Amino acid sequence: MLEAREAVRNLPTYHPPLGGRDGLRLDFNENTVGCSPRVLARLREVTAEEIARYPERKPIESIAADFLGIQSDELLLTNGVDEAIHLLCETFLQPGDEALVVAPTFAMYEISAAATGARVITVPAGADFEFPTSDLLSRVSPYTRLIAVANPNNPTGTVAEPAILLDIARRVPQAAVLVDEAYFEFYGKTLLGQWRSVPNLFVARTFSKAYGLAGLRVGTLTGNASHMSMVRKVGSPYNVNGVALACLPTALTDREYVREYVDQVRRGRDQLQKELDQRGIRYWSSKANFVLVSFGPLKTAFIQSMRARGILVRDRSQDHGCEGCVRITLGTSEQTAQLLRTLSESLAEIGTKEVIAK
User: What is the CATH number that goes with domain 37-253?
Assistant: First the structure.
């Protein structure tokens, strides 16, 4: 009888709750108003011939590399960051190897690493989700071949200082160290280019968040040119679709659109955190486009009350250390005003006595 590999049979399954998402989408960390109007205009110009051709990735990689200030052989365009993670695992992991991830974090690190047959070692975050540098290094072994870190982290919004991540990479030269900067635009600190002195470092970026291209599925994996040449071997030459490749250069040129959106998100993040402070509701200070908030036993009632008022937020209570927690994405200034009004109404409805206070 045909059977999937044991590593695949034992994989956890990632089920994003995408169904029935009517309302203001503050649940998936997407751009809440969509991509630049210039991208939509370019999308309308896509021809039948462009769709009929196999997509040519290399010219667009040169444009993306110029935008990021790196060399084109240091960059691979990917089908979102999910594929970047998958390709890195396929390149450097095999059965018997070990991969280190910090919990809680993005689920695809564990899934992609475990699918290779490698052993995934989970290192719990410290108090208040502080990055567990010492604990992480204590779990390094001769079999460690991958360390994956989201920075800022999802779902907590917390960060590890770049110097700490560089030090880890230097201490574990036999391992690929992936720093996932999916939320870079909302944070501003990067390790891009640092692989020139620390060659086992890789940095991933996405255009799904600030740029509003989640539906087109396009991201980047960047790193040392010789290592990237190995990663390219395990990927498809047509991994990024032609429509995404047609639209990405236009998205990169409209910097003002992204800057204005990011500025509004950052202001909204500060407003939400100030409101939670005033109400004595526990949250974790975020550097991303979302805030993780603890509602304790009122978590489900809060989510349902917000949904009834047209706002979707994400239940993260199944993540390690996140019992009773809800993740709330920020959007435009107008949407933040709507969020704060609805938050007030929902808390008045469900009460706050049982909410975990700071």
Answer: 3.40.640.10
